[in-house]
Each structure stands twice: as structure tokens, then as C-alpha cells.
From TrEMBL, chain A:
It is found in: Cell envelope. Gene3D superfamilies: M75 peptidase, HXXE motif. Keywords: Signal. This is Imelysin. It comes from the Bacteria. The keyword Endoplasmic reticulum does not apply. It comes from Nonlabens xylanidelens. Residues 47-335 form the Imelysin-like domain.
TrEMBL record, chain B:
This is Vitamin K-dependent gamma-carboxylase-like protein. It comes from Nonlabens xylanidelens. It is a multi-pass membrane protein. The chain crosses the membrane at residues 20-47, 67-86, 114-133, 209-231, 237-270, 313-333. It is found in: Endomembrane system. It holds the Pfam family HTTM. GO terms for molecular function: gamma-glutamyl carboxylase activity; vitamin binding. GO terms for cellular component: endomembrane system.
Length: 372, 463
């Protein structure tokens, strides 16, 4: 072999080999599954409509809040609570999409960290100067803070109304309530307008199999939400599966005392809908990770996973349906039902994290793998 | 027979192939260390984690905090000295020890090709690789008549490297003789379609026949390439296959430096003529630098090929080394159960890219009051460690002990550690992996069969 040829061959080898180390998003291929259509379905039929709805809900919440502050009476309080719950339910369809602008501004940390920190809230109110966007205030803002402000500031509605009307500091109480709700609305507007602006196209065109492509980020966010936001936060932590004793005060909607189950069921529905590509507030389905998984497993001759996942989600829902409307009550009366719900949710975690990720073979090349 | 062996051992050949091999090895190792550091992996793999997974019996090998950087620096420097042929023996020894130390610090990062580097550097330590074209011998390559002359070294020293490479390939090929690889084309059927975003090849990777073609040709390649490289008439074609094969694997999989190491290593199979040309080429490149090297050289009288006084020592040591290389991959036969499932005897056996395996392991801590809670693995492990731990029994056991110790220290009494774990192998749906009724904290690590691993419930036929 001529030395020059050898050098050429080695150079070519190194050049080709090194190219693959760079990361390129957005490629066009013609294999049978249309990942771009999956992303379009997620963006146009699920994420953006849900954000739109949340934005509308928060607008109504703002209006009710203004009305309540102008006239703090029982009727207006009831109305305000109702709007809060509407928005909170819609939020369950939004929390998992911690991607793009939402990720940059730590949207979900400013919307739904619970338990809320009453001391921080009271200190903020007392000082009258606060930066609600500060990470220190993540547990003093968002839905859980409003939950406290509308239900937990006193033991009965009369005293709660007094808190906003006759109390010595009523004005600062009103101001904080107002600021927190306005902030939630502003954040949501920021995230939504990014989606309706340029981000949507960037998002749907990032179809590669890289650490930073939308196809991979989205499914990682989804699994993270399922495991942490739903399985652990809503059920596992209150049930005490990560602590020596149950922690009834960690439930979602702690102060309103009746919505934790409703919120958790809605979160589970959102998971189900997203996995199966079901349109937000609709029944039509489009391309989804469920269809992607089905296609891949049909092609490589392995058994059906999509049905297994959907059956398991149904089993978890059935178990959750048995629970008390207020998970805190459930934890205190019969926690075994709580842990049983957790166990059912955990089985689906395994299917998502192991079986689905193995099927998708998502690129997580943090280090070298083995060669041959 | 005995005389045949004797004649073989006394046969000498040009030192050029070994010199080129030494230079290639040193340069690639230096580059690997720099690349490793540039990726920030020293920090993320060895300094950030609060806990490291040790090989059985090597828990005393731990990262040294920020001094870990020094081990890497030492290793890189030794590689450079090896390439230059400067104080070769001691440099090779330092390289072998530092590299192996790095690998032993945490088995999370275990790769066959790291093990290959350790084994190869052990072997190289005994070989006269700096006998030619090295700083060590800079002053003494000129013979009495003034003509440049390539020193002679024993033929077996070059052949031993060929043997090691041959073992690596051939055993990798044997390991592919199983039904998942050949009949189901697994795990390539999972891996290749996910490479849809690779230019030109992406679409091809979706086709089923391609998966089978890759599986079968990979197996045939591994089994036969050593022989095709040995045989002069097929050598060039075989080398082209080496290049194509390894470049392809590099494009398809994140396997770092390994393909280049193997491509350059395969040059050892060529005759000394090629190596002489490579050396004269490098010599011309380095000519302007020569005056910097000369002061470093040890001007000494050329010795006879190979220090004979070591022969009594080196040959038996290498004999044992190769016997181990040949036997170690078969140790799995001593364990019951499916090797891919239990991984008992899986490592150090050139089993590469055979499994797509993922797991999830949820640990439960129970104290004497019967109170229990689950552990959030992310509190203790990096994502990479958690991933590796979740499907390898020896990791699971070691981590269970770490957790047991941790919570005992926190004041829990009579701690028991259980695990609820699932593993999916080569596309099969996930199954329970470890018996969740077994208190792992009460089980000692050993080379005994781990009876607490649940049965595989399927069969993979073949070796």
C-alpha cells in the first residue's frame, strides 16, 4: 500500500468520523414515520390551544379578582374561587410542556410549587416590596399561593372576607393577591406569545435524534412531568412514600381542601391525551408518541407497548377514582389506598421510562459508548 | 516441537512496525486524554458524583478530588513520552498504572475499549517498542559503517500484539453467535432506525434487511478479520474493511476514539516496509525539531535485541496474560441463568454492542419500626450512574449497601434495603428484575451466583 494512499484513507476516516460528533437539528428524511407531523400535532392541537385556554382563564380570573377587590363580598369571593379552579384545571394540561420560553423563565416553578410557604407570603405582604419572579418566591406565588389567599387566610369565609375588607392591612392583602394573579397572567402571556410567534416553527422543524431536538426534549419533559409532577408531587409525597411518615400537608390544593383529586385526575387525563395525541378539548387524535411507539414496535417485531401503557394509565385512574376528593383526608384516614394509587402510577413510569425510551432509542450521549 | 518453539522465539525482525505502533498508540492516547478533559468528563464523571461504583476488591481505588486532574495529566504526559520513546519503560508503566487507576475509579464508565487499552498497555510495557526511532535510542541508530540501520527485535513481540487484536475481534465475533443478534437482528433493529437523522444513511437504516445485513456482516467481520489481516494476499482488502467498518460504527454510534484506535492498530499486520516509509515520513516532518530531542537522548551502546535477562521473566508473564485473555470470557459458563440478563461474567470478554438494556430501580428503606420510604436516586447518583446501576446486579447491590450505610448513619436502626426493579432487554417488555423480598443490605458481594436475580422468562440461544 502506498503511504500517501494510507494517509488519505486515515484522513478521510477521521474527517467522516469527526463530522458525526457535531449536532445538527432539523433534518429531512423519508422514513415512514413523520416526526414533524407529530410535533405539529403537539404544538397546534395540544400545547398552543391549552395555553390559549389558560390565558383566557387567567384573564377571567383577573377580572373576577378586580371585582372582588372592589367589592369584597361572598358572591365575589365564590366567583373568584371558581375562576381560580377553572384556571388551575387548565394548568394541568400545560405544566408538562417545560420547553422553549417556559423552560427559560422557569414557568412552572412560578406557577405551581406546593406546598406554598405561608411565612414567605406573610413576609412579602408585610414588607410590601417583593420580587415575585425571584426563585426565593417560587413557593409564595402561583396557584398554590392563591389557594392559600382565597381559602387559608382564616378559618371561615366571614373572616377571609374581613381579611380583604376590614382588616388593618386589607389593602396590602388585596395588593398581594392582585400582584400574584397578574404575574401568573403575564407569565402565561409571555409563554403563549412565544409559541404563537417564532417558536412554533422552530419547534416543529427540530426533528433530529439529538440531545436538543424537539422530538427528544418533548418526550423527556413529558416523562419528567409524569414521574415528578404527577406521580411524586400529587400522590407519592403526600402518601409518604419518600419519607418515613405520610405528609398530608403536601397535597395540591391544600387550603381549598376538596380539589386535590380533581386536579390529579385532570393531570392524568392530560398525560393520557398527550401520549395518544388527542387534541386539547377535543376528541380528534393526530400523530403522537403512542403512534410512533406502535409503528417502531410493529416494524421491529416486538410486542405491543402502547396498549400496555394505556391499560396501565386506566388502572391508575381507576385506583385514583376510589380516593377521597381531598387527598389529605385520604392520607389521614386510609393511606394504603393512596400508596396503592402510587404503585399503579409507578408501573406506568416503568413502561414510559424503560420500554418506551428503549423503543424510541433517544440519544443521550453524555459519554462514549462501547465500540466494536 | 520444543525446538520449533525455540526457533520461533529466536526469530528476529525489523523493529519498525513496533515503533510505528508505539507512536500511533502514544499519540492517540494523548489525544484521548485531552478530548476526555475537554468534554469536561473528568469533572462530571469523577469529581461531581458523591458516590462511585467500584469493581469487586477495588473499592480502595477512588477519585482523589481535584488531584484527579493530576492523574489525567500524568497519564497524558506518559502517553506523550511513549509516543516520543522517551524513557519508554517507565513511561509505559506510568501510563498503564494511571490509565488503569482511572478505569478502576468508577465502573459506571466501563467500556470494553478502555479495558483493551489497559490490556494493551500492560503488554506494551514488556515489548521493545522504543528500540527504534525513539528519543531513547536517538544516538545509536547509526552503525559502524555510517549507514542507518533498523534494529532487529524478536518476531514474537510484534506477533503478541497481533494475537491480542485477534483475540479482541474473534471473541467479539463469538459473542455475536446468539439468537438475539442473528435471528432477531437485535439490538440493531432498535438502534439503527433511530439514526434516521444521519445524512445519506438515515433512510437505509429503516430497512429490515439492512439490520440483518449489519448483524451478520458484523459477526463475520469480527470472526474473520484477524485471519484476513494475517494472510498477505487478503491484507489490503481486509484493511479496507477495517477502515470502512470502524468509520461506519463511528458515524452510527457515539463510540469516541475506539474506531481510530482499532484502525491504527491494524497497521501492525503490515510488513515492515510500510512502517519504514511511515517512519521516514515522520522523520522528515520532525527534522526541524531534531536539535530539541538530541539532548534528551541516552547515548549508549546498542544492546542486543531484547534484554535477554528478562526473557525468563517476560515470557512466562505474557504466557499467563494470554491464557487469562483466552479463558476469562468463558467464565460466564460457571454461572446459571442467561448471561445477558444476569451479566455474571459479562465484562472483560469483548461483548460489545450486544444489548439494548434499560432498567428502573426504586429502593425502599425499612427501619426497625417497620417504617419505610423510597429513595430518590437522583439525590445520590448522577443520571449516568443511575442509568448504569438500574440494570446491572453488582451495581444494584453496591448501591443498596451505600444506601444502607447512609441511612444507618442518619440514625435509622436495623436498616433493611429492598429494591423494586424492572429491566427491559433487546425490545422485550420490561420484567421484574430483582426479588423485592430480599434485603440486599444483608447480602455480601462475591463472585457467587446472585440468586436474588429473578429468572429471565425467555431464552437466548447460542454462545
Amino acid at each position: 500500500m502506498k503511504l500517501r494512499n494510507l494517509v488519505l484513507v486515515l484522513f478521510a476516516a477521521i474527517a467522516i468520523g469527526s463530522c458525526s460528533e457535531s449536532e445538527d437539528d432539523g433534518v429531512t428524511t423519508t422514513d415512514s414515520f413523520d416526526r414533524k407531523a407529530l410535533l405539529e400535532n403537539a404544538a397546534d392541537n395540544i400545547i398552543i390551544p391549552a395555553l390559549q385556554d389558560l390565558s383566557d382563564d387567567l384573564n377571567s380570573l383577573k377580572t373576577s379578582k378586580d371585582l372582588f377587590i372592589a367589592t369584597p363580598n361572598q358572591a365575589n369571593l365564590d366567583e373568584l374561587r371558581e375562576k381560580w379552579l377553572d384556571a388551575y384545571m387548565t394548568w394541568q394540561y400545560v405544566e408538562m410542556f417545560n420547553i422553549g420560553r417556559a423552560e427559560e423563565i422557569l414557568y412552572s416553578f412560578q406557577m405551581n410549587v406546593y406546598p406554598t410557604n405561608v411565612t414567605d407570603i406573610q413576609n412579602n405582604i408585610a414588607s410590601a416590596s417583593y420580587d415575585l419572579t425571584s426563585p426565593n418566591n417560587n413557593d409564595a406565588v402561583g396557584f398554590p399561593a392563591v389557594d392559600y389567599l382565597l381559602y387559608g387566610t382564616a378559618n371561615n369565609d366571614v373572616d377571609i372576607l374581613n381579611y380583604y375588607s376590614t382588616d388593618f392591612s386589607a389593602a396590602s392583602h388585596q395588593q398581594y393577591l392582585s400582584d400574584v394573579i397578574d404575574q401568573m397572567d403575564a407569565l402565561t402571556t409571555t409563554v403563549l406569545s412565544d409559541w404563537t410567534g417564532s417558536y412554533r416553527d422552530t419547534f416543529v422543524n427540530s426533528t433530529g435524534n439529538t440531545v436538543t431536538s424537539s422530538v427528544n426534549l418533548l418526550i423527556n419533559d413529558f416523562i419528567f412531568y409524569y414521574e415528578k409532577g404527577l406521580r411524586a408531587n400529587k400522590v407519592g409525597i403526600p402518601a409518604g412514600v419518600f419519607s418515613t411518615t405520610p405528609l398530608a400537608d403536601r397535597v395540591e390544593g391544600l387550603y381549598s381542601k376538596e380539589f386535590s383529586k380533581e386536579l390529579a385526575l385532570e393531570g392524568l387525563q392530560a398525560v393520557d391525551d398527550f401520549f395518544n395525541g388527542r387534541a386539547y378539548n377535543g376528541t380528534t387524535t393526530g400523530l403522537s408518541y403512542a403512534s410512533y411507539v406502535t409503528e417502531l414496535r410493529t416494524n421491529n417485531g416486538t410486542s405491543d407497548l402502547t396498549t400496555a401503557i394505556n391499560n396501565q394509565l386506566a388502572a391508575a385512574r381507576a385506583q385514583m377514582n376510589v380516593l377521597d376528593d381531598n387527598f389529605a383526608n385520604q392520607v389521614n384516614t386510609d393511606n394504603t389506598l393512596m400508596t396503592r394509587t402510587y404503585d399503579e402510577l409507578q408501573v406506568a413510569t416503568v413502561l414510559f421510562k424503560i420500554d418506551m425510551l428503549q423503543t424510541l432509542n433517544i440519544s443521550v450521549d453524555f459519554v462514549d459508548a462501547d465500540g466494536d | 516441537m520444543k525446538s520449533k518453539i525455540h526457533t520461533y522465539l529466536n526469530r528476529t525482525t525489523s523493529a519498525a512496525p513496533l515503533a510505528v505502533f508505539r507512536i500511533g498508540f502514544g499519540v492517540m492516547m494523548l489525544y484521548s486524554i485531552i478530548r476526555f478533559a475537554a468534554h469536561g468528563w473528568i469533572n462530571t464523571l469523577y469529581i461531581e458524583p458523591q458516590f462511585h461504583f467500584s469493581y469487586y476488591g477495588f473499592s480502595w481505588v477512588q477519585p482523589l478530588g481535584n488531584a484527579t486532574y493530576l492523574i489525567f495529566a500524568l497519564c497524558g504526559l506518559a502517553a506523550l513520552f511513549v509516543a516520543l520513546g522517551y524513557k519508554y519503560r517507565i513511561s509505559m508503566l506510568v501510563f498503564f498504572l494511571s490509565f488503569t487507576y482511572i478505569e478502576l475509579m468508577d465502573k459506571t464508565t466501563y467500556l470494553n475499549h478502555y479495558y483493551f487499552i489497559s490490556a494493551l498497555s500492560f503488554l506494551l510495557f514488556f515489548l521493545p517498542a522504543a528500540r527504534y526511532f525513539s528519543i531513547d535510542t536517538l544516538g545509536n541508530t547509526v552503525a559502524k559503517d555510517g549507514k542507518k540501520q533498523t534494529p532487529q527485535i524478536p518476531q514474537w513481540t510484534i506477533d503478541s500484539i497481533k494475537l491480542l487484536l485477534g483475540v479482541v475481534y474473534f471473541y467479539a465475533g463469538l459473542a455475536k453467535l446468539n439468537s438475539d443478534w442473528l435471528i432477531k437482528a437485535m439490538p440493531l433493529k432498535i438502534w439503527l432506525p433511530s439514526k434516521y437523522d444521519i445524512p445519506l444513511l438515515g433512510d437505509l437504516m429503516q430497512l429490515e434487511w439492512v439490520h440483518y445485513a449489519f448483524s451478520w456482516s458484523g459477526m463475520l467481520y469480527d470472526l474473520f478479520i484477524p485471519f484476513l489481516l494475517l494472510y498477505k494476499r487478503t491484507r489490503i482488502v481486509a484493511f479496507a474493511a477495517v477502515v470502512i467498518f470502524h468509520v461506519l460504527t463511528r458515524v452510527l454510534f457515539p463510540i469516541g476514539m475506539f474506531p481510530f484506535v482499532m484502525i491504527v492498530s491494524a497497521l501492525i499486520f503490515f510488513d515492515s516496509g510500510l512502517h519504514e516509509r511511515i517512519i521516514s515520513y515522520i522523520r522528515r516532518l520532525l527534522l526541524p525539531l531534531k536539535r530539541f530531542f538530541i539532548p534528551l537522548s541516552r547515548k549508549r551502546i546498542p544492546k542486543k535485541a531484547m534484554e535477554l535477562k528478562y526473557k525468563r521473566f517476560i515470557l512466562p508473564v505474557l504466557g499467563v496474560f494470554f491464557a487469562l485473555q483466552l479463558l476469562l470470557p468463558w467464565r460466564y459458563l460457571a454461572y446459571p441463568g442467561e448471561l445477558f440478563w444476569t451479566e455474571e461474567g459479562y465484562r472483560f470478554s469483548w461483548r460489545v454492542m450486544l444489548m439494548e438494556k434499560m432498567g428502573s430501580a426504586q429502593f425502599k428503606i425499612v427501619d426497625e419500626d417497620g417504617k419505610s420510604f423510597y429513595v430518590q436516586n437522583s439525590d445520590f447518583l448522577t443520571p449516568f450512574q443511575e442509568k448504569q446501576m438500574s440494570y446491572q446486579p453488582d451495581f444494584i447491590l453496591q448501591y443498596a449497601h451505600f444506601l444502607g450505610d447512609h441511612f444507618t448513619k442518619q440514625g435509622h436502626k436495623n436498616v433493611a434495603v429492598y429494591v423494586d426493579s424492572y429491566v427491559a432487554l433487546n425490545g422485550r417488555l420490561s420484567q421484574p428484575y430483582v426479588d423485592k423480598a430480599v434485603n440486599l443490605y444483608a447480602i455480601k458481594e462475591s463472585f457467587q451466583h446472585k440468586s436474588w436475580i429473578l429468572p429471565f422468562n425467555d431464552e437466548i440461544k447460542g454462545l
